Every structure is written in C-alpha cells, then in structure tokens.
Amino acid sequence: MLKSRRPEILALIAALYIVLILNQPFWRKFYEIVAPHNLRDWLFAGAVAVVVISFSYLLLLAVSLKPLLRAIIIVVLPLTAAASYFMTEYGIVIDANTVRNVIETDTRETGDLITWKLLGYVVFLGVAPAILFCLVPWTERSWRDDARAKLKYAAFSAAAFFAALLPVLGSVLSLGREHKELTLTLTPLNYASAVTTYWRRESRKRVKVVQPFGEDAHRLATGDGRKSLFVIVVGETARADHFALNGYARPTNPELSKVPDLINYAHAYSCGTDTAQSVPCMFSGFDRKAFSNGRAETRQNLLDILKRAGVDVLWRENQAGCKGVCERVETETLTGHKVPTFFPSTENGDDILVDGLDDRIATLKTDAVIVLHMMGSHGPAYWKRYPPQYETFAPACKDAQFSRCELPAIVNAYDNTLVYTDHVLARLIGVLSNAASEGIDAGMLYVSDHGESLGEHGLYLHGMPYAIAPESQIHVPMVVWLSPALREARGIDEACMAKSASERVGHDNLFHSALGIMNVATRVYDPKLDLFAACKTKSPKTYGSLAP
C-alpha cells in the first residue's frame, strides 16, 4: 500500500520530475550554449537550475488542491513527454507557429509522426508517472494546517528563487535575448505559451468580410490573339543547397539540368519556415517583414486580383490545404485519389498534379493561371514522397523516427524526394512546351515554401522562428521557365533574365511577377519586385505599362 504524502511534497516531486527528467532537451541546449568549464560557469548553471525548479514548484503549489493538481498532472505529464520527444528526436522548438502546424495538419501527416518511440515517451514518461502520482494518498489535515504548510514551503521556494536569480539576473536576461530557442525548449511553459498565443491570434481574426485588394486591376492586351498560361508551382520543404542546379555535388536535378532556357535563382529566400506562414505570404502582396497571417486573412490576395482582371484561376492541391489562399477560386483536391501514380499510405505522388493538365490546357477559353501545390519533400517520412523508381540514393531511411537511421540514410531519402520533384517539374515543362500547338504561350515558376534541416547541429525538419532559423530552412530553390512564344509576346530578353538570376530574390517577388507576366495592371503592382520587368524590351507604347 502506498504511503500517504503531504501535497507540498508531492508538488515538489512533480516539479523535480518535470524540470530534470522531461526537460532534457532544454538542459542539453543550455549545456551546449553555456559550455561550463570553470567553477563560475557551473555555479551559474546551478543557479539557473534552482530558478527553474523553484519557479515550477511555486506554480504547482498554487494549484495544489487535490482534484485540481491531479487533473493538471494527468494532462501535463503526457503532453510534456510528447513535447520532449519531438524536441529530442527532431531538434525542434515549440512556438505559436508549431501549434498552428499541429492544428492545421491532416491525418496523413500526423500518422507519419506517430512512432513507437513517441508512444513509449508518452506512456512511460507521461501516463505511468501521472497515474502513480494520482494513486498516492494525500495526508489528511485541516485546511488551516494545509494552508500553513503550503505557505511555509512557498516562502522557502520564493526565497530560493530570488536568492538564485538576483546574482545572475543580467546573465539570464542576456542569455534569453541571445538564445531565444532556450525559452522555446523549456516545457511545459513553451507549449502553454504557444497555445495561448495561437488562440489569442485566432480570436482577433473574426473576419466576416474579406477586404478588397487591387480593385483597379485590369488586363493590358497584347493584340496577338494568343492565350497565355502561367503555372505557379508551390514546392514543399526543398532546400536550395541540395539542388544540383545550385552546385550540390549529387545529381538531384538530372532532368531540369537538361532543360534549355531554364532560369535558376540560386539566392531565393522564403517568407517563413513553415507552410502555414509561407504559402499565404507569397500570395498576399505583403513583403516578409509586413506579413502576418492575421493581416493576410483580412484581405484578398493575388488569386483574387487575377480573377478580377479576367484571368481564369485554378488551384490543384496535393497537400494538406492551401491555408486559405484558394478559398475564392476553383480548387481541385487530388490528395488521396487512387490513380496510377498512387503509392503507399494513401498518398499520391506529385505526378498527379500534372496528370490531365494537357487536356485542361487544350480547353482553355481565356488566359489562365494554375497553381500546383506539391507534397514535395514533406518530412519526416521522406521515403513516402517518391515512387520506388526514383530512389537514386541508397540506403534510404524508411523510418519517421530519425534516431533509428544513420544521418547519410536520412539525407539519401531526402535527396530522393528532390530527384522526384525534378522529374515532376521537367514533365510539367514538357506539357507546357506542347501547349504552343494549342495556340497558348506558357511559362512556369517553381519555388519551395521553405527549406529543411537535416541534422545540422542536431536540428531536423523545419518551423524554427525566422529570426533564429538556420539558412537551410529559409534558403529555397526557385526556377523559372518561359516558352519562346511567351518570351516573345512579353518582350523578355532571355540573356537579361539569366544575368539577373544571380540577385537575391524570394517569395516577395511572386505576387508582382505573376501580375507582370499576365499583363495585369494595378496600383498594388511593384515593378521593382517583378522578376521580368527589368528584362522587358518592348516599349510602353506598344506593350503598355503596369505602373499606376
């Protein structure tokens, strides 16, 4: 039979368990940053430990009524164990964007993240200790004795907190400012703060009417009678430095490297580090610094402006959704449809985005923009993102639990996804090349929504806060292909385009480049951000001007 314990002792045990056992990712990161090597450093580390433990203890003491504390422990320990797993396994941090990704992801992506190791963390480090905590009987005493004991322990804990914090306060504040990732790994405070921030942002939205944007948009006719088609391909999780086109040693672009007239932008950067930020941002008309999800959701976007100007718009989806971007345009959701490109786990290869596109092109009645949203290189189940025949690099990691794979195998699987993306893009260009026979001038722009970490400094996947995100998560591949007929119709100098490809570009350019290539004039258009504007040779008198 379990011996009864006083609630203040049980709260102390719970605080020690949460801080010292479930916060291993925090302490590893702390040790890595501080790197204590002398007595002063170790005293600082000890002071931080006392501060964190005493603060956690004070919080638990404040809610140490039997039913309330037990309910909190039952919820907090499993959640904290799960958070600890993801931070340990993938090196991620937890903020409001992480919460958004969790809430907005679909069941397929969630299934890829559920592993036996995750279940082990939750059951053995979360559920079992929580049940044990609830089974321990509490010492019975009067409310006065109970209050007196708790106040005594709270006073002692508060004294320890301030005694440890005040001598190192400056160092702690400096450490927090310079290494924000530390506070984003301290759990459960990190996910509690993240959930609060996320719901506060959501509650502020309450948008009933989306505000018009680019109301003056109209087409500038070229007078040649031919139709124009521009395809925007939104990639997923591709990092620029693993594209052979950007100098990567491996042949990850075997087909695109043979495509004539392909313009490769080696210095392209994303608006965010996750899909929920980047996709709305690139279509919003806000630059990265001005963008927020709340602002983007309160007004129309690029697709609305194109549609208003008389351009047919279609969104083809092979991902977890368009994040609100395609709500007011025609959308084809292809995810889950069993077709010849189908492969395991009820997911389609990105070939499905190109399937049937030639038939749709043949029936175009007016100029059009088509957006293809790829599954791309979405991790951690990289091996599910490409058909077996594209497994160029082996052995490839075939486990979502990266600790079971060697790093080279993880990289092999990831690089195989890029080989497949390369094939899909080359196939698309082939379809667009054939559109000339249908009297259609076609072109395409591909850019990934964000990059990916592959074990650098123990970090995997993506979603780090932009201010501290590594280069691998924000430096993305971007390529443009325009048919000779479209270049001629728009008066675009190919040599000029190739030369300008060495400049720094990114998601901020997509909005204005799409308007420019489709001859849409509006005051919200900025020619300085149009990838094509500086290379147009036709005079404004003949071609027209997109300037307000």
Notes on the structure:
With 548 residues, the chain is of the alpha/beta class. The chain has 2 domains: 7-203, no CATH class; 218-543, Alkaline Phosphatase, subunit A (3-Layer(aba) Sandwich). The chain has helices at residues 7-21, 24-34, 39-62, 66-90, 96-104, 107-113, 116-135, 143-165, 169-178, 180-183, 189-205, 275-284, 293-296, 302-308, 357-362, 407-434, 471-474, 484-490, 494-500, 508-517, 540-543, and strands at 218-219, 227-235, 262-269, 312-317, 330-333, 342-343, 347-348, 368-373, 440-448, 453-454, 460-461, 475-482, 505-506, 520-521. The strands form 4 sheets. The protein has an 8-stranded mixed beta sheet, with helices on both faces. A two-stranded antiparallel sheet has the order 1-14. Strands 6-7 form a two-stranded antiparallel sheet. Helix 4 packs antiparallel against helix 7 and helix 12 packs across helix 20. The longest helix has 28 residues, at 407-434. The radius of gyration is 27 Å and the shape is elongated.
